Amino acid sequence: MKALALLSGGLDSILAVKVVQNAGIEVEAIHFIIPFLQTPDHNGTGHAANAAKQLNIPLHYHPCGEDYLQMIEQPQHGYGKRMNPCIDCRIYTFKIAAQKMREIGASFLITGEVCDQRPNSQRLDALDITARDAGLKDLVVRPLSAKLLRETIPEREGWIDRDKLLDMKGRGRNPQMALAAQYGITDYPSPAGGCLLTNEEYSLKVKDLLDHKNKLSMHSVGLLRLGRHLRLSPDAKIIVGKDEVENENIQKAATAGDQILELVDYAGPVTLLLGTPEESSLHLAAAITAGYGHIPEGVTVKVNVRGTAERELLVKPLSRDEIRPYFVYKV
Ligand code: SF4
Q1: pLDDT tens, residue by residue, 281-313
Q2: What is d(CA 49, CA 188) in angstroms, rounded to the nearest whole number?
Q3: Which domain holds residue 308?
Q4: Cβ(273)–Cβ(283) under 8 Å?
Q5: Is beta strand 108-110 parallel, antiparallel or unpaired with respect to 140-141?
Q6: Which residues pair with 236 in a beta bridge?
Q7: Which of 110, 144, 173, 314 is least crowded, fewest Cβ atoms below 10 Å from its Cβ?
Q8: Distance 114 CA to ligand 1 centre (A)
Q9: Which of ligand 1's atoms lies nearest the C-alpha of 87?
Q10: Are the C-beta atoms of 77 and 88 separated by less than 8 Å?
Q11: pTM to 2 decimals?
Q12: Are residue 159 and residue 69 in the same domain, yes or no?
């Protein structure tokens, strides 16, 4: 008998596998590379890779691409507190997991979900919806909370002994940490980090993108991790670098049609201007770029603009108070 585990690499997902392994079931795992995770696994390294190694199980990766972004744009079950469509996200991952189960000959799915741990994705009814909508009705075992949930097919059919499963609930982590100690598991990540879609500032950046483009792409979502984001008009947005590393990454991220702005005679940020700006937006972008430069008071400065053509604009730097209203989030 084999099960497939959703392995985030966090403690709950590690314990879920351990509980099922201890019940005598062979386990393989799948990890979703979600573009909004703060610390996604890369090239076989990261939290999930570490966890799989400790658990001694094969790990399959699934990079979430444009189809995942389409789900984020229009989630059937709506968003959580921010732009996090947790129920639809879980359904998406369950559907992919169901395919992987068929490929590897697994009979059921296991997850580290704990009842009442999170307000949206992990309410009891939400857990049911996610499995049903993914075509896995009664085939998802949540080993950490199974005794509080309806019996699943694997339990009913005797594939796994329900008595070996647990009854954890709520937000506290002490029971999980105690169980980890019992299993001798010491290497697991702290719960910090997680999904950027639950972060207020990041969510407002996603909302701004959707409000003005109605579409997300891997490129546009990748840019949301960089710099300060300011909207100048419905057709023009700028990203202003905060430090040397960001300035470099912003230069690299520019694509055809984008424009790069930099101060000519003073140190300052690199600004990426996206969209099709009017002349007034271009001047505004230059004045904001100058506003973050290291410039003596009262000086008018030259800003170099590189795009399809190259030119220089002469501008008066804006003050921080004048810049603030353009941010797509509160500063
Ligand atoms: S927090 Fe983010 S990754 Fe987790 S279920 Fe919600 S949308 Fe998906």
Answers
A1: 999 999 999 999 999 999 999 999 999 889 999
A2: 11
A3: 226-326
A4: no
A5: parallel
A6: 233, 275
A7: 314
A8: 15
A9: 5
A10: yes
A11: 0.90
A12: yes
Predicted pLDDT of residue 192: 62
- Give first-to-last CA distance, the chain, whole Å: 54
Structural domain count of the chain: 2
Residue whose tokens read 């499995």: 131
C-alpha–C-alpha distance, residues 89 and 103, integer Å: 22
Q: What is the pLDDT of residues 310-324, one digit of tens each?
A: 999 999 999 999 999
Residue range 151-172, pLDDT digits in tens: 999 999 999 999 999 999 998 8
Same domain, 160 and 235: no
Type of residue numbered 12: D
Which two three-digit tokens encode residue 286? Answer: 């230059």
CB atoms within 10 A of CB 303: 27
- CA 247/CA 276 separation, integer angstroms: 21
pLDDT of residue 190: 83
Atom of ligand 1 nearest to the CA of 196: 2
Q: 278 alpha carbon to ligand 1 midpoint, in Å?
A: 37
Q: Evaluate whether residue 99 is within a structural domain.
A: yes
Which residues in the chain show pLDDT less than 70?
Answer: 118-126, 192-193
